[in-house]
Structure formats: C-alpha cells, structure tokens
Amino acid sequence: MSVLVLAETSEGKFKKVALEATSYAKKVAEQLGTNLVALTINAEDNSVLYNYGAEKVLSVKNDALKNFDAKVYAGIVSEAAKKENAEVVVIDSSSNGVYLAPIAAVNLEAGYASNVVALPESISPFVVKRKAFSNKAFNHTEISTSVKLIGLAKNSFGVVENNVSGTEEDFVPSLADSGISVESVEKSTGKVSIADADIVVSGGRGLKGPENWGMIEELADVLGAATACSKPVSDLGWRSHEEHVGQTGKQVAANLYIAIGISGAIQHLAGINASKVKVVINTDPEAPFFKAADYGIIGDAFEVVPKLIEKLKEFKANNA
C-alpha cells in the first residue's frame, strides 16, 4: 500500500500547490504507516520533492503531454495509483486538479472528497474535513471505498519541509485518446499568476475606468502580488477575463486579498472567502465587503492607494 500525490508543474517547475500537496500527502502516509510516492509529468528536477517527503518519484517524460488534457492526465494518475497499490491519492485544487480528479476517481472506483482543508480526522473510518457552501461552512465526509481520492484546498495546509532520501523511477504510462487536439496556447508572461499568488490586489468599478488601473498594478508590483478584478470590470472589457475572481471566475485562496473599489457582491465574496486576510478600500461604509473583511478603510481609493504605495516603498527601502 502507498499514498500517491500528483505534483503539478508549470513549464517544468513545481508549483507551490504541488509542494503543499506533497507536504500534506506525506503526513497522510505517516498516519497510514506507509510510504509516499509522487507522480510528476515533464518536471525538470524531481529531487526537489525529496525535501517534502516523497520517498519515490514516478517521472513521466513525454512531449505529447506538454498541454494539459484532463482525460489523459487522469488516466496517467489512475495507472500510477494501480501500479503503486495506492490507498490514498492526493491531488491539488488547481484548475487542472479540479478537472482531472473526478475522472481519476471514476477510473479508480474511488470516493472523491474535494476542497479538503485538514488531515484525516480518523483513518478507520476515513473522515476528512471539507469546505462547503462556497467556503461559508465545513462538513465532515467519510470515504468508505478501498481507494480514496483527496482534493486538497489551496493554502489550507501549507508547505512543510520533511527531508527524506528518495529514489526516481521512469514511468511510461499508456496515454488515453481524449479526441481533443490543441492548436495553440497563449499564456500571459511577466505577471504573477492569481492561482499561485500569496497576495492579490483586486479592483472594481470604483476605479471608474481602465485608465486608472496603473495604481493597482503599481501596488501589486510593490507587494509582489497578482492583479485581479471583479466580474463587472471584466464584462466591461477594462481587464481581461483571466483576472476575474469570484464564484463564476477564478477562486482565490491568498494569504492577503486587497479589494479596491469593490462593493462585495455575494458572488465575488464566494470566490475569495478562502483568503486568510481580506482588506477593503471603499468610499461606501455600507458596502457588503466591510462585513466580510478583516480590515477596512473608508476612503477614496485615489487618495488612499497612492499613500499606501508611498508608505510601502518607504518601508521596503528602510528594511532592505
């Protein structure tokens, strides 16, 4: 028996969510008294995972897997799980993970718990704690199948070093035919990804127009943050849809989320509730966001944000 974790990469480098999922899977393996096996696809340096508890790495190298395909990737995870006789499979909750996990669960006839936020509360029965109702509540789910698949919620466990002596094995799985072909992929460059960001600076219609987005980008640059926006902003074409966060956009689980000129509609809050610290800047003291925020500033963003940028630059200069 073993625990298998899919360690996701981007252009050959491990994402933060991959290191978090590996850290989590190692603790699950310790609870079960078994070993941890990591599955990687086109990773540049698998030895990185030894620092987080992976005692064995199944390394897949195949140029045909350059572009993500949920059915194909799920097939690889399933084949690896069967090969290693995995009792538990851990997958992160990135957009790729969310797409492939249900397919892998069907392949393995496994019970699937998504949005898991903590280590199993018990092993027999196998019970995990999950986020529910758009992160407004928790539930406890028992998985009774012989194989259990866990979708780990981002930023819920943390990255924990656990150095071990690991081994690497080349793995050549059979590839499913999904019937999908990719002609081209366009990726934004030079910006922090919302999915991987620890800090997100987000703007809404309170900024009055796309011409005022410079201060959002400047604040994000000072903080090393990703930029985001509310749905109305992306609908108006002020910002691209890839920056839209909310229930119908991207989900954000940052350590710090700063909302500027965003009133806080329920759909937006549902997408950022998992963030640990939420800050809102708005002129309207009755804006719904103030009820959800940890810190609130009632004021004009065009006055508050430049002063905030100035103070942050001053702080960084004095603490360089």
Structure write-up:
The protein has eight helices and 16 strands. It is an alpha/beta fold and 320 residues long. It has two domains: 2-170, Rossmann fold (3-Layer(aba) Sandwich), CATH 3.40.50; 199-318, TPP-binding domain (Rossmann fold, 3-Layer(aba) Sandwich), CATH 3.40.50. The strands form four sheets. It has a seven-stranded parallel sheet with strand order 7-10-6-1-4-5-11, with helices on both faces. The protein has a five-stranded parallel sheet with strand order 13-12-14-15-16. Helix 2 packs across helix 3 (95-108) and helix 4 (214-223) packs parallel to helix 8. It is elongated, with a radius of gyration of 21 Å. The mean pLDDT is 92.
Class based on secondary structure composition and strand pairing = alpha/beta
The CATH superfamily label of the largest domain reads HUPs
Supply Rg.
Answer: 21 Å
Q: Which whole number gives the mean pLDDT?
A: 92
Largest sheet: 7 strands, parallel
Encode the helix/strand succession as letters.
EEEHEEHEHEEEEEEHEHEHEHEH
How many distinct domains?
A: 2
Strand order of the largest sheet: 7-10-6-1-4-5-11
State which percent range the strand residues make up. 25-35%
Shape: elongated
Low-confidence stretches: none
